[in-house]
Amino acid sequence: METGGKGYILQIQKFSIHDGPGIRTTVFFKGCNLRCKWCANPESQRSRPEFTLDRLKCIRCGRCMEICDQKARTVTGPQGYPAADPAGCTMCLACEQSCPQMAIGCEGRQVTADEVVAEALKDKPFYDHSGGGVTLSGGEVLMQREFAVSLCRKLRGNGIHVAVETAAAVPAEQFQELLREVDYLFVDLKHYDSGKHREGTGVLNELVLKNIEVLRDSKKPFRIRIPVIPGFNDSAKDAAGFAEVLNRLGVPEVQLLPFHQMGERKYELLGREYTYRGKPQLHPEDLETYRDIFEKYHIKAQVGA
């Protein structure tokens, strides 16, 4: 999927304040090896660029099918909306550019590490003043490990602090390779029970727990985060289960992320089903009792960003 100097990203977001210390630029990577049922960024799951279709805008005029030289646009479903065939599509973007309603979008593009660094350097004065830097997020950064390592080295070579957000569900040697090149790590732990973890994400949690140990022993600053999801890991029993595991791992603090619905609309645009459609969001006040359980285990728990 990559060479060391090139990779696929979704976007570069400037002036982020919740993705590490100081003012930051966040680079969102394409591709993820987890399939969390509540994922707020489904457009990040697949490794290559993909189209979206806004059915509220689409008038089914057929222009996108007419202009496609590969004949990779076809009508699908009983309402006759156009869809792209991945096997034939070359991502030339002619359909997106020709759509009179601007109903077609594209998620993802290929960039070089040098292009990302050049963009980040534009805001280096802000990083230096605030103690900020660049955060690599996803998707899963470690799905493009060679590109990520190359990018980290170039950023740090230019005096830029680098943080990475990861689910760490990869072999320890791969995790360590990236760990050597970063200044700060965020690791999401979705469930303390491996079977439940696989039920919610598609993968077991043994690699995640092993890499948290690796991170702890590295002495690099890090933060463990738990996305609190209704019906999956939001009970008092779950809080105690997490706390016991974190105690065993020697992790003294955790960040609790309340479930939100900011990604719900994205599933419609991608034409995918969303398991958590319509589920009520959680708010910081909903997690007060949950947080208190961690405190009883002598683990400092922060709710929200």
From TrEMBL:
Residues 49-78, 80-109 form the 4Fe-4S ferredoxin-type domain. It catalyses: glycyl-[protein] + reduced [flavodoxin] + S-adenosyl-L-methionine = glycin-2-yl radical-[protein] + semiquinone [flavodoxin] + 5'-deoxyadenosine + L-methionine + H(+). Residues 18-300 form the Radical SAM core domain. Keywords: 4Fe-4S, Iron, Iron-sulfur, Metal-binding, Oxidoreductase, S-adenosyl-L-methionine. Its cofactor is [4Fe-4S] cluster. One of its GO terms (molecular function) is 4 iron, 4 sulfur cluster binding. Belongs to the organic radical-activating enzymes family. NCBIfam families: PFLE_PFLC. This is Glycyl-radical enzyme activating protein. It comes from Diplocloster agilis.
